[in-house]
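ok trying this again, last paste got cut off
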Amino acid sequence: MAVKIYKPTSPSRRHTSVLTSYDITTSKPHKQLIVSGKNMAGRNNQGKITVRHQGGGNKKKVRIIDYKMDKFDIPATVATIEYDPNRNCRIALLNYADGEKRYIIASADLKVGEKLLSSQKLIELKVGNTMPLEFVPAGMFVYNVEITPGKGGQLARSAGNSIYLMGIDGGNAQLKLPSGEVRFVSDKCLATIGSVSNADYKNIRWGKAGRMRHRGIRPTVRGKAMNPVDHPHGGGEGSNPIGLKNPKTPWGKPALGVKTRKRGKKSDAMIISRRNAKKRNK
């Protein structure tokens, strides 16, 4: 994967870069594994905006991804590597020996024709193979890791992400997440060896507002540029500061650096250190 930069034929082109697509082997998704998606534009089931700055964008079909990887001990062959408009990594179409086809999150450097396997026992430690964490040696990188056994992968699914397996103790695997958080999960949880594909995604320069609108991201206006009636930061003359002790959301709640995690959550006992590297209180 590489970033392509164009000649600066216009002001926006000068600051724009795109990813090359040489790793994509087909532009036609498997029809039986796509469904129509609905653009909610940040609205809930009552039609109220709960996430701002979303809406519009190009229409896209949703690919059905297999996060559970529960076709155990049936070998699969990588048929295609494809682009998915709903995520920043590549996906791979697997042809299983029994005739079924499924999409998975592609690992880095995955090639068409490779053989992959998912199992609940010890199998070959090959990039792309899936097995419980209890069989993965300490020091290896994994992705698409389950939090609850059988629920499907929930951790490390974005482009370039991977989780470092620090060790296994007392039926729990100690993981270091991409955010820096260190936590335990059950060693019965499935994980895929390797790291997620398309690591260069973070190096894209979007270049102009139009490309963000194509992604469904609408403009964001600074609170201090508004009137007091519209935002707690509003008012003031020129470039004056917000005039408050702490930053606020548009609804007056503290923002920027405030902890939002619910206190007394059951999974607190599984977290060794948070992403800010502070030890949890015991």
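PB: full thing came through this time. The mean pLDDT is 91.
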